[in-house]
Each structure stands twice: as C-alpha cells, then as structure tokens.
Design brief:
This protein is of the alpha+beta class. It is 33% helix and 26% strand. It is built from 15 helices and 25 strands. Helix 1 links the parallel strand 1 and strand 2.
C-alpha cells in the first residue's frame, strides 16, 4: 500500500513511524529534508507543503492509496480537496471544515450558532477603531484581562495576553494595530477574555459521524521555564498512564469530550462534516473546561505523546476515517506515561538563530531509551542545520511520569549546538503547581 504524507516536522515524523508499523510504502512531500522521515520514505519531494501544484504532480507520479496531511497550512490551501479530486482518500478536513482552525472567528460563531458550551467572551474586528479599544476597556471594567490574537494562522505564535506578553491595555491596543498593519494571520483581530485556569489538550479521530478520543495531554506553550516568556508552538508535553491529567476530574474529562462531540455534530450540519484529527485546546477553569481554540490536525508536540503509546493499528484507524467506519475500529492506548521535550534554537521564538549546525548523537539517545523526532532541520551534505523553529524532539515512555521525564531529559544531553530546552516539563514540581492552582481556583483546601 502506498501512503502519501505531507509535512516534514516532528509531528509528521511521529505519523511516519506509526504508519511504518504496517506494511506500507511511504512517500513524503516536505519543505526541507528531515533525515528521520527521509529514511522511512521510498521517495521524498522537497517542496513547500502549500504548493498545490507540487502536491498534485507528486500524487500523480506515485498514485497513492491514501494520503495524510500533517500541518495546518496545506489544509487552509485546500490540499485535501485537491487530493480527493484526484481520487486519493485523504485523512484531513476539507478547506471549509478546516476553518475550525484557520478562522478563529468561524469557530467562535459555530459555538454561538449551535449553542455549544465551553465558549467565552469575544469579539472579532475587521479594522482598528474605537469599538475595538472600547471592548478591551470594557473587559477590564469587568475585571477581565484581554487576549489579542490574529483570526487566521500564525503557527501558534500570534497570541498575546495582557499581564503576560502585554503590559497593559495600551500595549494590547498597539499590538492589535500592528496585526492590522502587518496583515498577520489574515489581518483580522479577535479580542477574547483571558481565562484563569490550567490548559490541557484532547484529540479525537473523526470520520464525520464518529469521534474516538485519545489520551489527554498537557502542552507547555511558554518559551521559558516556570511558564514564562513568549508563546511558542509548544516546548514539550506529557501524558499520564491513566490517560487523564492530575488536575482533571472525571466530570471535567467528560465535559471536554462532550464539547468536542457537539462540535463534530455542528460541523456536520454546517460544512458537510469533519474528518481527520480534531484537536481541542482547553482551559480548565473553576467553572469547568472552556475551549481556547481547535486545531484541524494533530498537535505538535502532542502527536508524539499520543502515537508513542497507540496500541491499535494506525493505518487501520486512517482507513476507517476516510471510509466513515470508525465505529467498527478499536482505538486503544498503552497505560504508559509519556514526556516530550523540544530542543530549540537559541532566541526561539522571537529571534531564533537560523542556518546553524546542530549535532545529534542518535545512538546515545537510543541507548537511554528515548524516541527521537527531527523537526525544523535541513539535512545537507550529511550535516544538520536549524531552520529557525523547533529543531529536535525527544520522547520518554515509561510506567511513571517521573521515569518518562528522566529518559527525555537524559536524551537532551546528546543534542548540541546553540540550543536550549525546558528541563522542567514533566517534573513533579511543575505538575504540582497545576494541581494546586486548580484547587485554589475551585476554593478547595490546598
């Protein structure tokens, strides 16, 4: 069986490894040469993942039986629609259904129209003006801080929050103006209330009618230890052996799943259904889970946690998604803990070093028991160069979070260059802070 994979990051590396557990021939289109994926592929095509003519040409050449889209940008361009017009069943939503991620305004309006719980206070704006300024100030009057974000895609780096990246309302207004002037994320702005709580993520495999959930995962979007610094695409993540998270109650977990189930139902009415992987980014508040945003594909880094412990056959799940028979397939995971840590260029995400060599000792990483995934690197003449985004990820898998974290941390020692990583991800102290924060918010004795 021939499978076409679009994308060349660590998420796609995790997808490629999961696919290769089946007897398939893998063909990959990616912007830069990811050595890990290249080794698993029969053939690679080096091209931008958004160049539809390249995708079409490569698909016609290899004639795949199935395709999987890794990143969000080709979904926004309509890569799924193109491939399916060529007769290639594709894991991923149509351009219209992908708006659940590519347009935050579409997502918020969907929640409003179908009365889906878990939403928040928000307004979108097409231009800068008095109305936008007033809404930010109105939130403050209610004791709520503002979140300023572009409506479209920004690679997880466009969100800024008053009290964190923005000093006050004046800085929030200035940043909103910058978004309009630069055209970032389509040049439209969403102002939302800042939710107080703890973030978590939940993924589901979706075939338009059914959704099968994966373990809950917690990502760490801040660049620096102690959850400080700029918002990034994600510095690492962990999951627990029981597939929940230490601060989530059974009721919280149930409610988050219900929100995603209602979203799938709404998308079936609104855009003829959603298929692929749906990723819910939640904030657990004192009033339960609220949805921050959706992604129309696997999260990165969360894909590495999830696929590392998938017991069921991933290819079978993919085929069930495109054939609308997910209800006939078991989706099971090992009761193991996972910890993923990203090694990134110095200065990431604001002013990352680019084009510099990075040194990875694959044998030593393998020896400590970690899984290695190359991300934003380019292999040229047998050397590895960083392209400016997250460079290399390592994953520890074990019976406990403590042991999984130790494995991942040990593996980072064998990745060298002008790089850094968050050593606190998966550590007891940081997880305890999450638990204590939720107990305090809910008025429980700490």
């Amino acid at each position: 069986m021939k499978v076409l994979l679009i994308g060349g990051g660590a998420r796609e590396s995790a997808i490629a490894h999961a696919l290769k557990k089946s007897d398939i021939k893998l063909y990959t289109l990616m912007k830069n040469k990811n050595p890990g994926i290249a080794r698993l592929s029969e053939e690679i095509r080096l091209a931008k993942e958004t160049e539809l003519n390249e995708i079409e040409d490569f698909a016609k050449k290899i004639n795949p039986d199935l395709a999987i889209i890794g990143p969000e940008a080709p979904l926004e361009k309509g890569a799924v629609d193109l491939l399916e017009s060529l007769g290639v069943p594709t894991v991923g939503p149509s351009k219209e259904a992908a708006k659940i991620e590519t347009s935050k305004e579409f997502m918020r309006n969907l929640f409003k129209k179908y009365n889906i719980k878990g939403s928040l206070l928000w307004k979108s704006f097409d231009e800068y003006g008095e109305e936008l300024e007033s809404f930010i100030d109105e939130l403050t009057e209610k004791g709520i801080k503002a979140v300023v974000k572009p409506v479209g895609l920004t690679g997880g780096k466009g969100v800024k929050v008053v009290g964190e990246q923005l000093k006050d309302n004046e800085e929030a207004k200035k940043y909103a103006k910058e978004i309009f002037e630069s055209g970032l994320g389509g040049g439209k702005v969403l102002i939302e209330e800042k939710l107080e709580g703890v973030e978590f993520t939940l993924h589901g495999f979706v075939d338009k009618d059914n959704i099968k959930f994966t373990p809950f995962v917690q990502d760490h979007p801040h660049a620096l230890e102690g959850d400080k610094g700029s918002i990034t695409g994600g510095m690492g993540s962990y999951s627990c052996p029981n597939h929940k998270l230490p601060f989530l109650t059974e009721e919280d977990a149930k409610e988050a799943k219900e929100i995603m189930e209602e979203t799938v139902k709404a998308l079936k009415k609104e855009v003829d259904g959603y298929k692929g992987i749906l990723y819910g980014q939640f904030m657990l508040t004192k009033d339960g889970p609220k949805i921050i945003e959706y992604n129309a594909r696997f999260g990165d880094p969360e894909a590495m946690n999830i696929l590392a412990i998938l017991k069921s056959n991933f290819l079978d799940i993919c085929e069930a998604i495109v054939n609308r028979r997910l209800d006939k397939v078991d989706v099971e995971f090992e009761n193991k803990a996972t910890v993923c840590k990203y090694v990134v260029p110095m200065g990431y995400p604001d002013k990352p070093v680019r084009g510099e060599e990075i040194y990875v000792d694959e044998e030593k990483i393998k020896k400590v028991g970690a899984i290695l995934h190359y991300a934003s690197v380019d292999e040229r003449d047998g050397k590895l160069y960083m392209t400016g985004s997250r460079a290399v990820a390592v994953v520890g898998v074990s019976d406990t979070i403590e042991e999984a974290e130790r494995i991942a941390e040990e593996a980072t020692k064998f990745i060298n260059g002008r790089v850094y990583h968050r050593s606190d991800i998966g550590k007891k102290e940081l997880i305890r802070k999450r638990i204590e924060k939720m107990r305090k918010l809910r008025g429980l004795v700490i």
